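User: Structure please.
Assistant: Input sequence and predicted structure:
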Amino acid sequence: MNFPQGLNPDEGSPEWMNKADSAWQLTATTMVCLQSVPGLVILYGSMVKKKWAVNSAFMAFYAFAAVLVCWVLLAHQMSFGAKMSPLVGRPGSALSEKLLLGPSRRGLVPVADFVFYQFAFAAITVILLAGSLLGRMNFYAWMLFVPLWLFFSYTVGASTIWGDGFLERRIIDYAGGYVIHLSSGVAGFTAAYWVGPRHSHDRQNFPPNNIIHMLGGAGFLWLGWTGFNGGSPFAAGLVASLAIFNTHLCTATSLLVWVSLDMLFYRKSSVIGAVQGMITGLVCITPGAGIVEPWAALLMGVMSGSIPWYTMMVLHRRFAFFQSVDDTLAVFHTHAVAGLLGGILSGIFAKPALLKLMYPDTTYHTGLIYSFSGGRHADGFKQMGIQLLGAAFITAWNGGATSLICILISRIVDLRMKEDDLEIGDDAVHGEEAYALWGDGERMPKPLRLHMHPRLPYFCRQRF
């Protein structure tokens, strides 16, 4: 084997590489991957009706594999390679040994660490988007959608904000509040519009099939966020430690606020609501995790547990705009709203000293609240303007690109399943069911469709 320059074949590591940073980066990447597989696979498979458990879980499972192949073949270089335009890099593969074993521009780690970590981010973005489409999207359409959306939507956001694009040295997006969450929320909502709603009965009655498993999947998501935000500095240093601390503090606060609001207004503590509050806390802290102080993370948790709760539980029911689109798992509220909120709050609470620690070679402006004390209020307002400009760009690009992709796919295959398949679910789509409840793996015979008296208890009627 020909070792790249600076590599000591006896030691197995080059002089420029920091072993601790590289070890942490590989650990953080694994944690982010576990958020998707098995985290979101379990969460999606248990948060939907039983008849959609297999299809929902498999949409996530397929996307994870498809994104990896597409990422190393073309998408990584489109996001982080040499620029082809101000918006995107030149397509190319990330399979070269010379490339992968060379030093990364993001810390003292090999490029291979960077490529795989960024793949994990890209994969979870597509899988989060899928939450808006569960329970009705044609799986063949989904198979086409994943690579197309990765190439023509995700890569542009990643390139412009993280890949030396026109926003990278201006906008504050520490770990993907805009690149990942705002984009997935907007794209999911847009795709849900084009795909159309679930079967009318499913839309009215869509209980989770296994709440305990749902909590298990949510747990993978929560704890995996340690790698999500802790790995973004590409170094096992002070910023990573602060980011992890802030992440869990904000998330716990958001969950408690959401549950408290549910109990205050509905007199019950909803487990599904607790999961939603957990997610909004994770999303909100992401763009500022390593560059805000803990007291700010606490405030961000209060707002992430209340503002998305209000948009989901109040505004969603009042506005026809929201009612007209069937967003299965409310991804717009948990990711687009929470991601936008986090981006704005990061512009308010970003501490100059932490910005300098995280980005020593860039010229970010100060957070708004610090600009007043330092006599730099113009810089603070300028940073807020950039945060809003970035949000507008990501929203417009993802909405437009997702619409064009859905229109293109609809010319090839149907975006939505046939009505007969929507009534059956997994068995019609995959020929498989989530649970073998009859015999030893044998399929349960189809029940008789008896006419039942409407006054029978609900659980009795369900047996027929």
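Residues 222 and 282 are 7 Å apart (CA to CA).
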